[in-house]
Design brief:
6 strands, globular, 4-stranded antiparallel beta sheet, 98 residues, alpha+beta, two-stranded antiparallel sheet
Amino acid sequence: MTSQIKELAEAIACRGISVRTTNHAEISHDTAKLGRLWQKFYQNYAGQLPEGEDIYGIYHNYESDDLAGAFDVVASWKTASEEDDPCRQIRIHKLGRF
């Protein structure tokens, strides 16, 4: 698995699971949420995706620019429809590099 930045030419809809955290919380193993988010994603969802499917880590909804401000992170994949699902849905409206 390799990470890359993709240039999106159009908005896409994504589905996934999310957490709300802070940079400060991520410093401590006891309060960090991102590792557990990705562990849950790979254990419960990644194996059900088609081979070669892009996976998106979406950071958004920033409270502030400092270490104390909370933000949301969604571990997700692109979806063609917005059917009911227990996973969080998000639409990436801003075009550009992700």
